[in-house]
User: Fold this.
Amino acid sequence: MRKDTFKHQGMRRQLVGLLVEKGITDQRVLDAIGKVPRHLFMDSSFEQYAYQDKPFPIGCDQTISQPYTVAFQSQLLEVKAGEKVLEVGTGSGYQAAVLCEMGAKVYSIERMKELFNNSSQILRRLGYSLTQSFGDGYKGMPAYAPFDKIIVTAGAPELPKDLLSQLKIGGRMVIPYGSGVQEMYLIERTSETDFTRKKMGKFRFVPMLKNKESRD
Ligand code: SAH
Assistant:
């Protein structure tokens, strides 16, 4: 079984230092990134690069997000312990683990069976307890709605209406919006019918696709 060694922990501390230099200030985000063994969410052939601030392939043409992006989105969410957070795009499970470390009650959806299975396995093995679903993130998880926070980790060509409707009043959603290059939107629900939007900078994500994978 692969381990989390002192060497990995040292590299993780350096990564946290780099994220501080790049402008991440939320100490709870930094502490969570300092705790989650990112290398265990990646294929062992990439393990030595796990604490570089870069995205890496996780199979199925998908990537584990760059640590800076994970930190930036987590910081924008302003997660507080006990809040219900919905993630769209479980992928490797790394972002979900960071949210668990921050004390959130995490719900995460993935549309590819293989990634759903792999992430469930590693998250369980590391002792993270969350609710995972294999399905289409455009639909959200109505059975568990409303959510305090929603984080989308794939590039959305449109703002998914079902996700907006599953947000609590006063809640926030962080979503990379656009095709090709995305603009990170911070959306706040201010009433039953009203939302505010702020643009927070440009990022590049794999696309958010409709429906779950057909070969399940
Ligand atoms: N949060 C992930 C990042 C994964 S990349 C991590 O920490 O590793 C984005 C993921 O979104 C991919 O796994 C992709 O399969 C998934 N995805 C894309 N469209 C989706 C949709 N409509 N519903 C659920 N997951 C989706």
Q: What stands out?
A: The chain has six helices and nine strands. The chain has a mean pLDDT of 96. The longest strand covers residues 167-177. The pocket of S-adenosyl-L-homocysteine is lined by residues 62-65, 88-89, 91-92, 94-95, 109-112, 115, 136-138, 153-154, 206, 208-209 (CB under 6 Å).
